[in-house]
Write a structure and sequence with these properties.
The structure holds two protein chains of two kinds.
Chain A: H1 3-21, H2 25-45, H3 49-73, H4 89-110, H5 125-133, H6 137-158, H7 169-180
Helix pairs in contact in A: 1-2, 2-3
Chain B: H1 4-24, H2 28-52, H3 59-89
Chain lengths: ~190, ~100
């Protein structure tokens, strides 16, 4: 096991544990960004440069910031009972441990990849672009449609409930919603 | 030399951490963070299998690119839902959000 993988794995795991256990929500979001950065490093080490950069752009640049905005827009849990974990956290932790045990046992027993070595040479961005425009053009269009629907849906869902239903609501309702909410803009990879 | 199994074990551990957080935390936003961690564990599996796989096609990379796009849409819609729920219940504490109508 080479040291680069060990360091990146340590960063990823410590970030993940921090994101799940810290009490301060902003610390959770920053810890999550550390995890995403470590995963981007792992992708780069595995030879998937475009995916690593997309990870940095989409996850660190958009998703983590989106989570920070959501934290800022909502109030933290009531300070009287500041326990961040639910009352049945022992059962949840036990189930998570069982899940990890089953997964690791399956990985060990199956012996998958024991005789495999990492291939050299990845795909270039030019090849990815060619494939996106030829073989994967239908999924690309579907993903574009999905992102458009998600954009509109997120704006509609997050619109205020007590939106004014006056006679001018039809005129400036959607525009006001877009201006007021925070999602649009940073979503396309 | 790093083996495929170490990547798979790291991915399984990341999935388990995300799952534990999603199940045990009380704040809805952190639950969504746990779901994001689980999605990232799946993406790491895709890339690891692609790197150690037999073919030289770009299948794994393309799958992860589309997966990232879908995860971004999921995060946006999920956070919008949390904002809407917060407006309604005035809290993001999942222990308090247990009435389906009203």
């Amino acid at each position: 096991m080479n040291p680069g993988f060990s360091i990146l794995a340590l960063i990823v795991l410590m970030g993940a544990v921090g994101a799940m256990t810290l009490r301060n929500l902003v610390h959770c979001a920053l810890s999550l960004a550390v995890t995403f950065a470590g995963l981007a490093g792992l992708y780069l080490a595995l030879g998937a440069e475009f995916v690593g950069l997309a990870q940095v752009l989409v996850y660190i640049g958009a998703v983590a910031i989106l989570i920070v905005f959501a934290i800022l827009l909502t109030r933290p849990l009531d300070t009287a009972q500041a326990r961040p974990f639910s009352a049945t956290w022992v059962a949840g932790l036990a189930v998570a441990l069982i899940v990890f045990g089953v997964l690791s046992m399956a990985i060990h027993r199956s012996g998958v990849g024991a005789d495999r070595v990492a291939l050299s040479g990845g795909v270039t961005v030019r090849e990815i672009g060619d494939l996106l425009m030829t073989w994967y053009v239908v999924p690309l269009e579907v993903v574009g449609l999905l992102l458009t629907v998600a954009l509109i849906g997120a704006v509609i869902i997050a619109l205020r409930e007590e939106a004014p239903r006056a006679e001018d609501a039809a005129g400036d309702g959607p525009g006001k919603g877009i201006g007021k909410e925070k999602e649009p803009g940073h979503r396309e990879p | 030399m790093t083996t495929l199994q170490s990547y798979l074990l790291l991915s399984a551990l990341l999935f388990a951490i995300g799952f534990a957080g999603a199940v045990t935390r009380r704040n809805a936003i952190i639950v969504l963070v746990g779901i994001e961690l689980m999605l990232n564990a799946a993406n790491l599996n895709f890339i690891a299998f692609w790197r150690y796989g037999a073919g030289d096609a770009a299948g794994g990379v393309m799958f992860v690119i589309f997966s990232i796009a879908v995860a971004a849409a999921e995060a946006a819609v999920g956070l919008a839902l949390i904002i809407a729920v917060y407006r309604h219940f005035k809290t993001v504490n999942l222990d308090r959000i247990h009435s389906m109508k009203g």
